[in-house]
């Protein structure tokens, strides 16, 4: 049997918190097993919910606070005046060793700022990135950053490439993941200064990263590469554009399959296949993004998700702890950077 | 009967040129009727193709040149040394009044640079934008810029908003189109400096533009607003991400509907509905983007399209000419700007 894992939960973050949070914990505890929660938030709101979900209540400890970080709070303001917020206290629990992972569906910018300050960064990484998997024609594709950093320079993008490579290898089990930088064209002259310079660094570096070059937006769905690197502004918009397109597609498919007696009959006969198809694209399946680069496991759930999606984010956090990901990334990064420092001098000596 | 329209064609631009170009003209002439082409490119390659398509040959005049602009050419290099290229000569034909519209599937940056220099800009617009329609749950949504400008300041985005509004009203027939700016969140504090400042200008301006505020990537598919404004880097990646997601969705749908004897039978019975559904999302239907802001009709086709997609781009160009769009935009912009200049002084005097 696996060791019991303690997960700290920001009980008040997300559009439908705290209801969907506690509902999500209920689904998570039934699926994952051997997990314990520290649930941060307003006891007056959380207690009645726990009464509805005895399976959660049995493994859950409420840590009362009425302070919350809202979506309108600037990260700097959240850092200054949010020291007693459910989000901050949940992160503190990881730093203090009370919990092994923190899950929040709240304000992305505040979560990133707090996790960076409280947990600190993995040595060699200057800024964290939000990473998550996308479905693709060939399986799945890891993309980062999905919204932690609005503007990124070339150095940030290179660090994202290294973190993404390590993550894809250690967590997704890819043996030699290929890395692409998201751009408006595949030609070397295309794009802004950051992507051009980052590509140049990755092309010429001794990092053992399998760099493919530039990829375009449609390469996400094609599965051209295993890891796609981008700044948080573009990545967030690409992520949500893909989600929105999938939702629109599903909407029109439903519409088509109910448009006539023939289509209804056909849909009933093909129901098993159509249900599997729909399930494959359910965005809740892909909910739960890791804040890669932080020195501790921190998972961001989509703010607008429901209990099923939140449960998935909890599962992502638990798997990251069970796979010992932060330590693996730290080790691999240390090796990668040592290699990178050694190689050029070797070449110079040849 | 409508007046005959002369369209100049860059015969050598695009991944599958010139074959798909001439094939596209064949489809276009059969559909549109009463159109004439000036076809710029290598006569040795174009003549044998015209021999295969007598309907095109009957209304087409080849203008021979062996110079071409490649996808690797920087816009500045194309401007300097591409004066005899098929792209440049096709644009010149519009400036010289020989043709009413130019269509190219070639290098986007070069096309924008050449069209801007040769055709010049509509007064009041400092940079052109690529605009095209996306399918949405509520119908369609116009988005700009889709790749003409890698970096945009707030003033560019405001001009795109004005152009998009005028275009949506005059060409798409929307009575009071709503405008949104693409961002990583809807809260006013989110995003980079350009989008924040542009939103502030649109919110406080006297321009009669129905400004909705910020929208996110998934609002493209939802159809939250009629016009979405963004910089060319983000817009290009959003466009291609949506295309790629639609293609992946179609791939898995095909896979699901052929996975068992039941799904195959269901698909046969529902074939009519499924075909209509597929046709609705065919990216070739949405091919053909206008270079909004240029003082003349210039349409950019997707470089990787086929004859069906290229024919659609030709049709977009012909419709823009028939609807007299450039003049309508010029008139409306002059009014809008006159209003904007009047309003503040009125307010100050009150």
Describe the structure.
Mean pLDDT of chain A is 89; it is low at 341-350. Helices cover 51% and strands 17% of the residues of chain A. In chain A, strand 10 and strand 11 (297-300) form a beta hairpin. In chain A, 56% of the residues are buried. An eleven-stranded mixed sheet of chain A has the order 3-2-1-4-11-10-5-6-9-7-8, sandwiched between helices. The first copy, chain A, is of the alpha/beta class and 350 residues long. Chain A starts with a strand and ends with a helix. Chain A has two domains: 1-119, Isopropylmalate Dehydrogenase; 127-285 and 324-350, Isopropylmalate Dehydrogenase. Chains A and B meet through helix 9, helix 10, helix 11 and helix 12 of A and helix 9, helix 10, helix 11 and helix 12 of B.
Mean pLDDT of chain A: 89
Low-confidence stretches of chain A: 341-350
Biggest beta-sheet profile of chain A: 11 strands, mixed
The dominant shape of chain A is: globular
State the CATH topology of the largest domain in chain A. Isopropylmalate Dehydrogenase
Helix content of chain A: 40-55%
Query: Class by helix and strand content of chain A?
Result: alpha/beta
- CA radius of gyration of chain A: 21 Å
Count up the helices of chain A: 14
Largest interface, C-beta closer than 8 angstroms, per-chain residues:
A-B, 70 and 69 residues
The quaternary structure here is homodimer
The number of distinct β-strands of chain A equals 11
How much β-strand is present in the residues of chain A?
15-25%
Number of domains of chain A: 2
Query: Could you spell the SSE succession of chain A in H and E letters?
Result: EHEHHEHHEHEEHEHEHEHHHEEHH
- The H-level CATH homologous superfamily of the largest domain in chain A, spelled out, is Isopropylmalate Dehydrogenase
Q: Which strand order do you get reading across the main beta sheet of chain A?
A: 3-2-1-4-11-10-5-6-9-7-8
Distance between the termini of chain A: 53 Å
CATH class of the largest domain in chain A: Alpha Beta
CATH architecture type of the largest domain in chain A: 3-Layer(aba) Sandwich
């Amino acid at each position: 049997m696996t060791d019991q894992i303690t997960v700290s939960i920001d009980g008040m973050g997300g559009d439908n918190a705290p209801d969907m949070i506690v509902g999500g914990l209920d689904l998570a505890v039934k699926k994952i097993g051997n997990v314990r929660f520290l649930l941060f938030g307003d006891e007056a709101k959380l207690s009645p919910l726990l009464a509805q979900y005895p399976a959660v209540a049995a493994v859950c400890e409420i840590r009362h606070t009425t302070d919350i970080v809202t979506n309108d709070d600037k990260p700097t303001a959240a850092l200054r005046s949010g020291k007693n917020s459910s989000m901050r206290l949940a992160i503190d629990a990881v730093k203090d060793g009370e919990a092994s992972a923190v899950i929040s569906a709240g304000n992305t910018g505040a979560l990133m700022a707090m996790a960076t300050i409280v947990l600190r960064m993995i040595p060699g990484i200057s800024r964290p990135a939000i990473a998550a998997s996308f479905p693709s024609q060939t399986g799945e594709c890891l993309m980062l950053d999905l919204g932690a950093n609005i503007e990124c320079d070339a150095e940030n993008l290179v660090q994202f490439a290294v973190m993404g490579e390590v993550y894809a290898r250690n967590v997704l089990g890819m043996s030699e993941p290929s890395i692409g930088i998201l751009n408006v064209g595949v030609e070397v002259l295309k794009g802004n200064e950051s992507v051009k310079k980052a590509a140049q660094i990755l092309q010429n570096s001794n990092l053992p990263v399998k760099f493919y070059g530039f990829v375009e937006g449609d390469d996400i769905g094609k599965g051209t590469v295993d890891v796609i690197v981008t700044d948080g502004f573009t990545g967030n918009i690409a992520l949500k554009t893909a989600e929105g397109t999938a939702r629109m597609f599903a909407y029109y498919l439903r519409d088509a399959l109910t448009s006539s007696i023939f289509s209804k009959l056909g849909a009933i006969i093909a129901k098993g296949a159509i249900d599997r198809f729909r399930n494959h694209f359910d965005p809740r399946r892909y909910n739960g993004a890791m804040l890669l680069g932080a020195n501790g496991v921190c998972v961001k759930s989509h703010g607008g998700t429901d209990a099923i999606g939140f449960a998935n984010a909890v599962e992502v956090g638990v798997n990251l702890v069970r796979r010992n990901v932060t330590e693996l990334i730290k080790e691999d990064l240390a090796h990668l950077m040592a290699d990178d420092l050694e190689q050029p001098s070797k070449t110079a000596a040849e």
